[in-house]
Amino acid sequence: MTAFETSGGPETPVAVEGPHGPVRLKWHKLRRHLAEAPFKRSNLALGWRLGASLEVDILATADGRFAVLHDATLGPSTTGRGRASRMPIASMSGLFHRDARGAADPDAPVLSLAELVAPLRKLPRAVSASLQLDLKLLEGQGLPDSAIADAAAAVAGIEEAIVIGSHYLDDARRLSAAIPAARLGYDPMLAASRRPDLRDPERLLRHIERHSTGVSVSLAYLRFDAVVAAENQGFPLVRRLLDLGIETDAWTVNPGRDITDSILRTLVEAKVRQITTDAPGEIFRLISSL
Q1: Please, are residues 147 and 64 in contact by the beta-carbon 8 Å criterion?
Q2: Which residues are in the GP-PDE domain (predicted)?
Q3: Which of 122, 151, 161, 220 is the most exposed, having the fewest neighbouring CB atoms within 10 Å of its CB?
């Protein structure tokens, strides 16, 4: 396999060439390196310019805004404390996300979605650049209409670059309806964790097919080991999804003992179109060396 070159070089790859064409490398939580803090503003700007697939997590706050946060609580991943859903967005001002050592990163403040993406309207965007809003919900928490309006206003002018993804397809569909140009993705892995029958890849396919009917789902977010298990069982799950017009994003693929050459080879040969990773440069090199 040969590398897919980008203007940023191998330290800032946006894709890698596989046996069936380029495989996008999505920057999970906007990370380019595993040890750095999530949601760095400089990485967002760089990826936007280079044409990367970018991802941020969003959580509704007490005042019906969206904060860019992965966890339900502010600590220990940020310099704050408290449950995000019980706090107004203004109370998070001055907080920062922490890196792997626990150090606060001044380039990664805790921001509202509107604050994070506002600079993108003035920055040059490569045609292939996209920003996934990974919708996080707490059990029993509905998505307020005010948060949907907040997100729609936040991405006004860059709607065509937006992807809405979530375990919670009904709420993601409501959000995507407010951003008509956005693409919609579904992550069925939460459902699969609660229903043992969905560990069967054919039943998982049917589940995704049923839930995407009439909803225009264009992406399926599958845990990488679910893709590998389906391939090992001889069921071409990823290819069958492509037949339905649904591309597969395999998450989260990071360097380490769990990620072998065999796993990477299986993913790209299965026709996965996107790989979610916190270390795109390292995954780029590993796949390029296969």
Answers
A1: yes
A2: 54-281
A3: 122
- For the chain, the first-to-last Cα distance in angstroms comes to 6
Amino acid letter for position 103 = A
**DSSP characters for 216-271?**
TEEEEEEEHHHHHHHHHTT--HHHHHHHTT-EEEEE---SSTT--HHHHHHHHHTT
- The encoded tokens of residue 236 equal 């071409």
In terms of Cα–Cα distance, which of 208, 287, 211 is closest to 242?
Answer: 208
Torsion from C-alpha of 78, 79, 82, 85, nearest 10 degrees: -50
What dotted CATH number matches 15-288?
3.20.20.190
pLDDT tens-digit profile, the chain (290 residues) = 333 334 345 578 999 999 999 999 999 999 999 999 999 999 999 999 999 999 999 999 999 999 999 999 999 999 999 999 999 999 999 999 999 999 999 999 999 999 999 999 999 999 999 999 999 997 667 899 999 999 999 999 999 999 999 999 999 999 999 999 999 999 999 999 999 999 999 999 999 999 998 889 999 999 999 999 999 999 999 999 999 999 999 999 999 999 999 999 999 999 999 999 999 999 999 999 99
User: What secondary structure letter does DSSP report for 78?
Assistant: B
From the number of C-beta atoms within 10 Å of its C-beta (0-12, 13-18, 19+), residue 100 rates as exposed
Strand 130-135 with 104-109, pairing: unpaired
d(C-alpha 28, C-alpha 36), whole Å: 11
Structural domain boundaries in the chain: 15-288
Where do the H-state alpha helices sit in the chain?
41-50, 113-117, 145-154, 169-177, 189-194, 201-212, 224-232, 237-243, 261-269, 280-288
Helix count and strand count (H, E) for the chain: 10, 12
Per the listing, tokens 């991802």 go with 55
